[in-house]
């Protein structure tokens, strides 16, 4: 079962990777190698995170929690648009194309990173607290929770 702390940590890592990519594309001088490497790192982090999210959203589909399902559906259309835009972005920007059209890559990168940051904040503020409320995710990682349970009372 996923936990709130790890999901938020994933978001922090995604935002950090996004900032690194944004810093690389900010100057007008092309840096296609570092940009492509930063993009691949962000893509790997995002793919792993989406897999983790799918675990508890899929669990909810089995449990049919109506309130969480409604909340998830309300976020669904915007999320689906972002995933489609991200997929197009990744398919469009390989190392060669980044080197050929640095200004457009920079503009596309700033746009997709802004959308990603907005989505992450929305999840932090509504989706994850709801998943926690309905028991779809834990608050703490299991290892930390187990450690706290083993600690003798003072």
Features:
154 residues, mainly alpha, 83% helix, elongated
Describe the structure.
The model has no long low-confidence stretch (mean pLDDT 88). Helices cover 83% and strands 0% of the residues. Helix 1 runs antiparallel to helix 2, helix 2 (32-63) runs antiparallel to helix 3 and helix 3 packs antiparallel against helix 5 (102-133). It starts with a helix and ends with a helix. It has helices at 4-25, 32-63, 66-92, 95-100, 102-133, 142-150. The longest helix is centred in the N-terminal third of the chain and has 32 residues, at 32-63. It has one domain. With 154 residues, it is mostly helical. It is elongated and about 55 Å long.
Describe, in short, the structure shown:
The chain has 154 residues and is mainly α.
| Unreliable residue runs | none
How would the global form be characterised? elongated
Provide the helix percentage: over 70%
How many strand elements?
0
Question: What is the overall pLDDT average?
Answer: 88
Based on helices, strands and strand pairing, what is the structural class?
Answer: mainly alpha
What letter string, H or E per element, gives the SSE order?
HHHHHH
What portion of residues belong to β-strands? Answer: under 5%
Task: Report the C-alpha radius of gyration, rounded.
Answer: 18 Å
Distinct helical segment count: 6
Number of domains: 1
Q: Major β-sheet, in short?
A: none
Could you tell me how far the N terminus lies from the C terminus, measured between alpha carbons in angstroms?
30 Å
